[in-house]
């Protein structure tokens, strides 16, 4: 965009490993192409409260390996109101920012979409979420690291599950998506994944028991996607205790440990490519798109399309978990 001179960057919503690598890539690519860069603290909150700082290439030194986000993050209530967004726009313009790069998940992109509809602000989104629940991209920044963190935990749980001959329900994050649950189950050799995408179709626990899991094994690990509506792993374990008292069931909820840690090489590379692509998109005059990666290639996904994420999982992969756990 010919008129854009200064780019503001923020991270919002749940943090994800690799956000720092993305901040670094956006900042350095922008400076390389002659833009000024401003860091906006605490996501949209920093726009509303005017916490905006000048960035240079040293501002992002030695952060590629760090989890979390040096810009901090928040879920901002004020930005959901027209008054809050007006203030945000005024602060942004007063700071001389002409375009925004926002890094986060569906809440962040929803905020971006509304802001761009109300004000004439070019916004480029980067998918930064461990949930991988955005459309138009094969990967999101942070997903791979979270998956590996989960694997590390499951491998450890397997030792004790096996020693005590127990059934473990391990609850993982994912918001309303089952990717972390499904693929951590596949990669860890767990006996099953219970995911929200299948919830209305089958009684997943009943099926599991009927298939006679643990018949020939002395322990079992079932990965359960978090689900506030059904009660997740805790509710399943309660049900097992009542209906199948012969099983010695335990629950482990992995929680926020899944959001921390040094990003994997895969997440660092993804974040670096996407951060650079955000600046290229701005240079091409793109606006209100999310950077995606499909079949290894960078794509521009209209933010509205990225948000229309359909709950699609590869059923063959779910089946594979079963096949490989006989
Ligand atoms: O979107 C990332 C995520 O970690 C989800 O997997 C989870 O449901 C949610 O954020 C937890 O949010 P909070 O940190 O606000 O409790």
What descriptive keywords fit this protein?
2 domains, four-stranded parallel β-sheet, binds 6-O-phosphono-beta-D-fructofuranose, single chain, alpha/beta, about 325 residues, about 40% helix, Rossmann fold
Task: Explain the overall architecture.
This protein has 326 residues and is an alpha/beta fold. It has 2 domains: 181 residues, Rossmann fold, CATH 3.40.50; 116 residues, Rossmann fold (3-Layer(aba) Sandwich). Helix content is 40%, strand content 18%. The chain has a 7-stranded mixed sheet, sandwiched between helices. A 4-stranded parallel sheet has the order 7-8-6-9, with helices on both faces. Helix 1 packs parallel to helix 9 and helix 5 crosses helix 6. The radius of gyration is 21 Å and the shape is elongated. The N and C termini lie far apart (57 Å). 6-O-phosphono-beta-D-fructofuranose binds next to loops. The site of 6-O-phosphono-beta-D-fructofuranose (F6P) has 10 residues, from loops.
Quick one: overall form? elongated
- Structural class, judged by helices and strands? alpha/beta
Looking at the overall shape, the CATH architecture of the largest domain is 3-Layer(aba) Sandwich
Number of helices: 11
Strand arrangement, largest sheet? Answer: 3-2-1-4-5-10-11
User: On the 0-100 scale, what is the average pLDDT?
Assistant: 94
* CATH class descriptor of the largest domain: Alpha Beta
Tell me the domain tally.
2
The unreliable regions are: none
What is the helix fraction of residues, given as a range? Answer: 25-40%
Q: Cofactors and ligands present?
A: 6-O-phosphono-beta-D-fructofuranose
Hey, roughly how much beta strand do the residues contain?
Answer: 15-25%
